[in-house]
Write a structure and sequence with these properties.
Radius of gyration: 22 Å
Number of strands: 11
Structural class: alpha/beta
Strand content: 5-15%
Shape: globular
Oligomer: single chain
Length: 449
């Protein structure tokens, strides 16, 4: 498991087709749609880079021609929506953000339910095990949420859980090698290092944007404890859209923790999103970084990372008895008006199978199947042992960071603005009270689903 990513990728390239043939039985008719053509709409993401070498393998297996289209972020989200709303739809399978965006698309009747395809033995192999994905991953795209009639509208493709990265050299230099075990200790240690002027204590997503909300939610879930956070409300609402929890003590504590970690970072942290924060940590300038687990493999790339071999990986320092966290998912979905939905399902089924997922995940570090972390493969050979242990531990209890409401992005932006206020010196309780009022106004007139 300590083999480098580069070595594993070279090993993987030698015989991909022969390896995949072991996993796909002869009884299932993979060629039932031979001659068809399907369009793929994909975000320019490491998952997309990971699957590209194997697309010819799918075409050879099925006889289906793939027409992939890659769009870079952030333009992907707008283009995705435009394509889904067009008539005809110029995509049959697409990269689906499994959060409030997917929920909104479902509400607008733009997503095809996958449950009937999953339950059709002529379209789904007997070996395709949906329950190999953690329940928290599956729930993120099951609508209507918490209803007996719910169906699945997306299959997990790659995930990020929120973990702690740390620079071993700086932890040795300033903390005698002791990694903080609680969140309070982490804030104290990061502040101490930052005040030394010799290194940054922490880097975080600090920009005032709804885009930071999943990292914020991961920290909030850690401080929330074992009490359930059911969808669609998550921890932010008390079972009703008219009952936000923005000034609940645990929420105030989480927002304050996030602001304190920002204060232990660079002076321009309020202008930093994940690319800038990741670059600073990768350059060896910061001791701590809480963010998406999928960044881990890049830190071990010696040609681009100044800290390869010097990064520690662990779950979030606990607030209560146990470390907890959240996760965010990219998945694969089918547009409601796809002209080739069954052929598209074959692609999704193949791309998210255990055999193929292990190959793609070498590029992402975010294999969403339990088995991919436990079954020896190119994936388990490629990933750092400590990284694998941290992520596998996190995904056992991680919960969705999603809130399933069309106005969630507006609420998330208000939460980010409140963190900025606390960072700038506002009293946390007063800032949270103001946030509570703002969210009530945003949600006015919204009843329970």
């Amino acid at each position: 498991m300590l083999t480098s990513l580069t070595t594993s990728c070279r090993r993987l390239a030698r015989s991909p087709t022969r390896e995949a043939a072991i996993d796909f039985g002869q009884k299932f008719d993979w060629r039932r749609f031979a001659g068809d053509e399907i369009g793929l709409l994909l975000d320019d993401h490491p998952w997309t880079s990971g699957i590209q070498p194997y697309l010819p393998e799918f075409e050879a297996l099925t006889g289906i021609t793939l027409k992939p289209r890659m769009v870079a972020e952030p333009a992907y989200f707008a283009e995705m929506e435009a394509i889904l709303r067009a008539d005809p739809v110029q995509a049959d399978a697409f990269f689906l953000p499994m959060d409030s965006t997917a929920y909104r698309l479902w509400g607008d009747d733009l997503l095809l339910p996958l449950t009937p395809l999953l339950n059709n033995p002529t379209l789904t192999t007997a070996s395709y095990n949906l329950f190999d994905f953690p329940e928290g991953f599956r729930l993120a795209a099951m609508y209507p949420p918490n209803r007996s009639s719910q169906q699945l509208f997306g299959i997990p493709a790659t995930f990020e859980a929120y973990i702690l990265f740390y620079n071993k050299r700086l932890v040795n230099q300033f903390l005698a090698g002791r990694v903080p075990q609680t969140m309070a200790e982490l804030v104290q240690a990061a502040t101490q290092i930052n005040e030394s002027g010799q290194a940054l204590g922490a880097v975080m997503r600090g920009v005032k944007s709804d885009a930071i909300i999943d990292t914020v939610s991961g920290i909030m879930l850690n401080g929330w404890g074992a009490e359930p956070t059911p969808l669609p409300f998550n921890l932010w609402f008390d079972g009703d859209w008219q009952k936000p929890c923005m000034n609940a003590p645990r929420v105030v504590e989480g927002l304050t923790t996030y602001a304190r970690l920002m204060q232990a970072g660079p002076a321009n942290i309020k202008q930093m999103d994940w690319p800038e924060a990741t670059q600073l940590f990768q350059a060896g300038k910061a001791a701590f970084y809480i963010d998406a687990s999928l960044f881990g493999p890049d830190f071990e790339q010696g040609d681009t990372s100044a800290i390869a071999g010097q990064v520690g990986y662990t779950v979030l320092p606990r607030v209560h008895q146990q470390s907890l966290t959240g996760h965010w998912l990219w998945g694969l979905g089918i547009p409601r008006r796809s002209s080739q939905p069954q052929a598209a399902w074959l692609f999704i089924q193949w791309a998210t199978s255990q055999a193929v997922e292990a190959k793609i995940a070498v590029a992402t570090g975010g294999a969403p199947r339990f088995s991919s972390w436990l079954t020896p493969s190119v994936y388990t050979e490629a990933i750092n042992f400590d990284y694998a242990l941290a992520v596998q531990t996190a995904m056992q209890t991680s919960r969705p960071t999603a809130v399933l409401h069309p106005k969630w992005n507006q609420v998330a932006l208000a939460i980010a603005a409140t963190i900025h206020q606390i960072y700038d010196g506002a009293q946390p309780a007063l800032a949270a009270d103001q946030l509570q009022t703002t969210v009530k106004q945003l949600m006015a007139g919204e009843g329970s689903p």
